Amino acid sequence: MIENRTDERKEGRTRVRRPRTISISLAERGQTTQDFAIGIGVFLLAIAFVFSFLPSIVTPFDSSVSGAETAQADRIVDRIVHNVSTDTPNELDSSDFNENYTGTNLAAQLGLRANGPGSDDTVYDNVNVSVVSINGSVPVTDANGEKLAGGEHYSDQPAASAARIVTVNSPDTCTPACRLIVRVW
């Protein structure tokens, strides 16, 4: 019952010959060992360049201040707000602030590593405490005209800082509010 159908289908077609597989010897191939070595060398140089360039991209975001200084600054600002506040939350008593936190050597008073009597004048931790206007441009003074600031002079060096929004009980001192900033370096 098998019929021969091949004649009907193939009559109108011409037979296409398939190309033969040609083998090329190793001496005639397209890529040589030198091409491979140069390609791998360029690839490795590109990878080395990426890995050497990558740390410089992240460098501006790297901080020279450790978490210890940040914790110290936060602890100090909390202590100042707690010790110098009036009955109103976050309102500083300017006379208590001037009495306790406007000196030049606050490190020992605030519990930081400082020079003791008979020490070698090595300063371990520096601290700066200041009350500034809310935008940070103008130092705040109390009713007597004294700046609400103390500690070592801060001149834009890397430092850990902590800030709290406060008011001062002196009239017309902080309208509507001020910032208490503590910097530790």
UniProtKB/TrEMBL annotation:
Keywords on record: Membrane, Transmembrane, Transmembrane helix
InterPro entries: DUF7287
Transmembrane parts of this sequence: 36-54
Alphabetical list of Pfam families matching this protein: DUF7287 (PF23958)
Protein name stated in the entry: Uncharacterized protein
